[in-house]
Specification:
The chain has about 400 residues and is an alpha+beta fold. The protein is about 45% helix and about 20% strand. Helix 4 packs parallel to helix 7 and helix 5 runs antiparallel to helix 7.
């Protein structure tokens, strides 16, 4: 028997037909360097594809940036050339204008000279005299205007003093009658300002705001003239003098009004006990305190104690009539003054009393001297204020020291 041979053709695998290093070669690009001379040796340069592509991209980017810069520089160069041409045209126009101005000026000077030659000597002298007279008149107006400003400044200072006096009264509004009169004074001054004739005399160029009745603060009307460059005329000066006269009249009315209310306040200002009877330190205040004589417990202190050396002068806290002088139990030697309006003050522990019952004293008069009479632990003044027979804290009344 014959052995059967396998006639199936032998096929090689595809992988064996491909160079195993071909996938590595794809990562590179080979560049062949051929020399320009025949004897040179041909060389090949293998560059990674990634590096090659990066070089190409970089070259393209640099080329585009360079091209953009070149185009921009060309645009700037065009703008520069256009600007230079415009400036040149402007310079030419300016030179032409200067030449025309010089020609016009020369023509005007010739015209003036011709007119002056046509005038007679008498006419030229008359013109010079008229010019000098006009200058003198203008100087006189300015001198009067300066005098006007000086008087106006004096009025302003006078008004500041008036307002300072009114403001000074505000610290006395603790006195009930004075408070009511102070409010009436403010309202009266406001009404005088509101109904002043100055509003009719104010120039339109003046800066002012009309007062509202019952709402305006006490103060003088302020305004400023228009300072636009214009010649001072008699009409303007007359207008200012009229306003100055009205201001002066208003100031007189305001001061008379102030004096009227001040005189009505005077009795209350004079008699109200606002003065410290002794200018020193308070050693014990009004109200409940521990018994200073010992023994424990507390007591109600109906006044204040002011520590001071023996024989220190004691002054009347306000004007009034002495209603009691003498010894009063633990208070020792006492002086009591009736100030009116339901107010009385008492000065106790005196070493000596210097006034008598029924005597009229004024604020600041020396009425006694500090001592230790009665129930005391040392020299001091016991000071009390009674309102309608009830002892009240004296400290709110004590607004000023003797000077």
């Amino acid at each position: 028997m014959f052995r059967r041979h396998n006639t199936r053709p032998h096929v090689k695998k595809v992988s064996t037909l491909v160079d195993k290093r071909s996938h590595k070669q794809r990562k590179y690009i080979s560049l062949m360097l051929v020399p320009s001379y025949s004897t040179g040796k041909t060389r090949s340069l293998r560059i990674p594809r990634v590096v090659f592509y990066c070089i190409i991209i970089t070259i393209l980017a640099v080329a585009s940036v360079t091209t953009g810069l070149y185009l921009r520089s060309e645009r700037f160069a065009d703008q520069y050339r256009n600007t230079r041409e415009h400036l040149y045209d402007t310079q030419v126009q300016f030179d032409d204008y200067q030449i025309q101005s010089a020609e016009v000026q020369a023509a005007l000077e010739e015209e003036i000279q011709y007119i002056d030659e046509q005038l007679t000597e008498v006419e030229r002298q008359a013109r010079r005299d008229e010019y000098n007279l006009r200058q003198q008149h203008q100087h006189s107006l300015h001198d009067l205007a300066q005098q006007f400003e000086d008087v106006l400044q004096e009025l302003r200072e006078f008004d500041e003093q008036r307002q300072a006096l009114i403001e000074g009264l505000s610290s006395r509004t603790i006195i009930p009658p004075v408070a009511a009169l102070y409010d009436a004074l403010n309202q009266s001054q406001t009404d005088l300002l509101y109904y002043s004739v100055l509003w009719d005399l104010m120039p339109l160029s003046a800066e002012h705001t009309p007062f509202e009745p019952g709402q305006a603060e006490v103060g003088f009307i302020s305004f400023t003239f228009d300072v636009a460059p214009q010649p001072l005329t008699e009409a303007i000066l007359a207008e200012r003098i009229a306003i100055l006269s009205a201001e002066l009249e208003l100031q007189v009315l305001l001061m008379e009004d102030f004096q009227y209310y001040r005189e009505r306040m005077e009795p209350h200002l004079t008699n109200f006990p606002t003065l410290w009877p002794v200018s020193s330190q308070i050693s014990s205040h009004f109200g409940w305190r521990r018994n200073p004589m010992g023994g424990g417990g507390g007591e109600f202190h109906s006044g204040i104690d002011i520590r001071a050396p023996r024989n220190t002068p004691i002054r009347a806290a306000g004007g009034g009539t002495v209603s009691f002088v003498g010894w009063r139990g633990g208070y020792g030697l006492v002086v009591t003054i009736n100030h009116g309006s339901g107010l009385q003050t008492m000065y106790a522990h005196n070493t000596v009393n210097l006034v008598s019952v029924g005597q009229r004293v004024e604020r600041g008069d020396i009425i006694a001297r500090v001592g230790t009479t009665g129930r005391t632990t040392g020299p001091h003044l016991h000071f009390e204020v009674h309102e309608n027979g009830v002892a009240v804290n004296p400290q709110p009344f004590m607004m000023e020291h003797w000077s």
